[in-house]
Specification:
alpha/beta; single chain; 31% helix; 31% strand; 5-stranded mixed beta sheet
Length: 234
Amino acid sequence: MPILLALDASSSACSAALLIRRDGAEERLVTRFALTPREHTRRLLPMVDEVLAEAGVSPSELDAVAYGRGPGSFTGLRIAAGTAQGLAYGLDRPLLGVSTLEALALAAHRRHGVEHIVTAMDARMGEIYVAAWRCRDGATEALLDEAVMPPQRLQLPEVSSEGGWHGIGSGWALWEAMPTEVQAAIAQRDAESEPAAEEMVLLAARDYAQGLRPAAHESQPIYLRDQVAWQKGK
């Protein structure tokens, strides 16, 4: 049974999580999370050291490393990818990239038991990163593929959702710009939550159990609009 480490710096939050699943032992999850805008470089590796030390696990015992591969902050994604790749290379372990939007969906499901979830993160420039999900018994299914768009263009999938949709993520701060039909479909929303390594390590464990073992050099951040960011950076 695996021991997995996940880290994330895709938003204003910075986090690390260690999942320990050993035969005959109770599952253990050790986490660190803090809102640390512009301090990710300074805080991320100490968080990794803290979760390993608290669990009494050495880096050599890790079976794989995971990170929030995006979408999200360009700078934060590069910090997380570089840190995770360095760890995975050094340990000769697989590196699993996990969707930040899927992690948000799982967080909403775990906290509130909701089934239909729209995850949205503020993408700046008047846009949001968005996706929609169905979550049942801890499993996630994408109903709307990850995309970047102005909030005015958001349309929800047509599904039977008796409890309505749950919105989570910083993109919901742009609520007033969303179409009235979207507003009418949202039963509750949480614009304060940020992606966290706690959910990412659980998603990575799912992928690892399914046989995914990507090498460190194969994993790349997902920006969704990297061409736009490149052009604006000129």
